[in-house]
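Notes from the 1:1 (GR / supervisor)

We went over the backlog. Supervisor wanted to see one worked example end to end before approving the batch request, so GR pasted a single chain during the call. The sequence is below; no edits were made to it. Supervisor asked that the structure be written out right there so they could see what the output format looks like.
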Amino acid sequence: MLQWLIDIQRDIYLTLADQIKAFAAGGSWTAFAAFLPMGIVFGAVHAMTPGHSKSVLATYLAGSSSGMGRSLAVSLILSFVHVGMAVLIALLSLPLVSLALGSVGRAPLLEDMSRGLLGLIGLWMLWRAATRTRHAHKGEEGVAVGVMAGLIPCPLTLFVMNFAISKGVPQAGIAFAVTMMTGVALTLSAVATTTVFFRSQLVRLLSTHPKLIEVATRVLEAGAGLVLMAVALNEFF
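Structure output shown during the call:
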């Protein structure tokens, strides 16, 4: 399965490279735009491979009480920041490259920031579950998780942007990145939808036992907090 996903990405990327070369050589926007929908497939397939904070998103949503709409919003924010950071780094590569980028396709500084901040969110969730304190601003918390998890830039978007910039057509890279972001958002939204669905089914099964629901909710929240903290600690040790 993983090899199949990799093969699809490779084929689309090679075709994209030809399209960018043709556009840089004087091709029209119309011809390039006809290829852009493939970016949605590219992004969706790429987001199915390991990484992209799918486990972080699912863990947080499993332990939160966010509804379907708010959970989808978190996945969209994560997608936007994940792809947007790669575009920003590519466009500002000269001043940022020595600060943020370590090896090709990675940004160690941003990865450390992302995991560290997510660890703080995990600590907050654990404290809230233990003290029975209910937070009144779940929307802001969800936005924070989406932004923090998305700080790690998308490596393939970096490759696409750098290739487009090297050919003198950064606008082509940005246009493809936008369609890629749509595909990434579709995959992450599917993760969010599935997580919330199964969480709601669990709550429904326990609906005749209010006290058990309360315990289960706190266990899920505490578990999610511990996992986020473990992810953060694993990044530093």
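Supervisor's comment: The first helix runs from residue 2 to 24.
Batch request approved.
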